[in-house]
Write a structure and sequence with these properties.
alpha+beta; 6 helices; about 35% strand; 11 strands; 6-stranded antiparallel beta sheet
């Protein structure tokens, strides 16, 4: 799970905002009432945003090197058409997708921390983003069916990673990046694993069918 220290800090900040918000709203003086009320609502609103940021970050997991996070087993359904059974190793959850193409790709979102957060031991964190099918041929890529599935199951409306990614210069000490697994070929019976590395995701074959598929397309 995401760093407990950072979530705790955000929780304290939210409580401080709530305290000052209620303090301003609780003052009965009419002369300063409107101003105090405005400040109070601002603090309450800020606390809500901080709480949602903390909840969104809870869906990220710390990036630990050499940890298998998912395995993928493929069954051929038709020409350039595969059923992919994906197992989330850490959670013990299975999902199935139908991908079209010659290769599969998995993308993840990565948050890297610097400054004070890095000094207190906050590790980079990740969240799987999507899985998709790809074609070797540019012509197929343009004309054939595309299949993309979201793996990001956050339930909260606030997308912290996306905001940081678009406004990275406004958030010093935090870097939002994409980490993509290597494009690897799909084949009937092929079994792969996706592991975490210091630079993001890496995919590896787990059986001979996967190794043969890679050798065939190299």
């Amino acid at each position: 799970m995401f760093s407990g220290a950072l979530i705790g800090i955000l929780g304290v900040i939210a409580l401080i905002f709530i305290y000052f918000g209620l303090k301003f709203l609780g003052n009965k003086s009419w002369i300063m009432g409107w101003i105090r009320g405005s400040f109070g609502l601002c603090f309450i609103g800020a606390s809500v945003v901080v709480i949602f940021v903390a909840l969104d970050l809870l869906s990220y997991k710390q990036l630990m090197a050499d940890k298998t996070i998912v395995t993928l087993h493929m069954e051929k359904v038709g020409e350039q058409h595969y059923k992919v059974n994906l197992t989330h190793v850490l959670e013990g959850v299975d999902e199935s997708f139908e991908l079209r193409g010659d290769q599969w790709q998995m993308d993840a979102r990565v948050l890297r921390w610097g400054g004070l957060l890095k000094s207190v031991g906050t590790k980079p964190s990740y969240r799987l983003d999507r899985i998709s099918g790809r074609y070797f041929s540019l012509e197929d890529e343009r004309r054939s069916d595309r299949t993309v599935y979201e793996l990001n199951h956050s339930e909260y409306w606030l997308d912290t990673w996306a905001w940081i990614y678009k406004n990275n210069e406004l958030v010093p000490g935090v870097d939002a990046t994409y980490g993509s697994a290597t494009f690897l070929p799909m084949a009937d019976g092929a079994l792969y694993e996706v592991v975490l590395t210091s630079s993001g995701l890496a995919a590896k074959p787990l059986n001979k069918l996967a190794e043969q598929a890679i050798n065939r397309w190299q």
